[in-house]
Fold:
Amino acid sequence: MLKLASLAAMIAFTGQSALAMNQLDYERPHVQGELLITFDEDLSESQKEQLIAESGGSVIHEYKYSNSVLVKLPETNGFVSSANFLAEDSAVENISLNHIFSINVTPNDPNESKQYQNELIGADKAWGITTGSKDIVVAVIDTGVDYNHPDLKDNYWSNPGETGKDSRGNDKRTNGIDDDNNGYIDDHRGWDFANNDNDPMDDNAHGTHCAGSIGAVGDNGIGIAGLNWNVSIVGLKFIGRGGTGTLGDAAKAVEYAVTMGFDVTSNSWGGAAEKDTATAKDPLFAAIKAANKKGQLFIAAAGNNGSNNDNKKLYPANYDVDNIISVAASDSRDRLASFSNYGPKTIDLMAPGSGIYSTSTRSLFGQIYRSMSGTSMAAPIVAGAVALVKSANPDLSAKALKQRIISTVDPVSSVRSKLKSGGRLNVYKALNQ
Ligand SMILES: [Ca+2]
Ligand SMILES: [Ca+2]
Ligand SMILES: [Ca+2]
Ligand SMILES: [Ca+2]
Structure:
């Protein structure tokens, strides 16, 4: 590890600066000592290595869909000067702290009736047309998914490139080989980016709850019906047991979803990113742009501060990328939920998110179904609607799919000036447009 002794000299002869110094927002929650750096496209590998070495840092991850790296800087005291050193270099396009995102859940309301949303959003009528398809893959980017849950296991995805037998007759799920060459060994049921292992089991309950709204097995005589009775759900875990995860790990999860070509991702988490810009050029923004290019929709929770996202930015909901559908939460009386964020310029629509009854994990709450509230609960309902519409219209482009979801909302006068669409999801109308 190089020392920072020569730092002053480095700054002195660095050329034109791409970024002003001291722009990083240290007030916001972030991982101590970590920095996300995006380099100019034409910088060579050796130039990158040299620059990082000069900053005193070491690379802990290289991103696939942007020229970005996650770097660990050694000394707490030297961090700010190292970050400034990098920010000053003209070859650095963007630097960001590794911000911490958290899940958008609020305490549950036990007086809400169970699964009231199905009638409200027209799910019961939609099921007369389609109940979904196993061909549609929805990635739940969250705390993991309980793939053993009796109401989820039959709808859990399995990676075709990491199942079956390899040429030596060994089980690809456990052979220690990256059989599908996607950078992850034995990822037969997704990945855990929080703990860097191949087991995305939920150790919280949040991701399992989201998964149930999207696709708890319908018509199987137990529990609840997801919006899709049949679908393939994959858990991409980047949020830890405590309910927080990092921007850097979120970017890895989205990159994985892009590489695997999933249909849609459900993202019930958020936080502040760097500098309040909707085009942050951090690796998460780049990964969502790569998803957009591949025709993969990205459903994002608006957040639970009861505030206006047009003014108080929250990411990823506020990134300016075409494939994002940002979702506020409504309640059983079709009002904007009191905790829900909104934004006439930034939040697309609302969907039921208050008192949502769905699948849970026994290990944490002693019961396998549970009511929860949050924009976290609203986003997966929209992700489920996207999957359901796509099951009946597999050739619909992402752009057309998004347009359908947003243009067919039921108008709600109280949110006319609070949401872009001015209304609440209606999946039946989205199917029939
Ligand atoms: Ca693999
Ligand atoms: Ca394998
Ligand atoms: Ca794990
Ligand atoms: Ca069921």
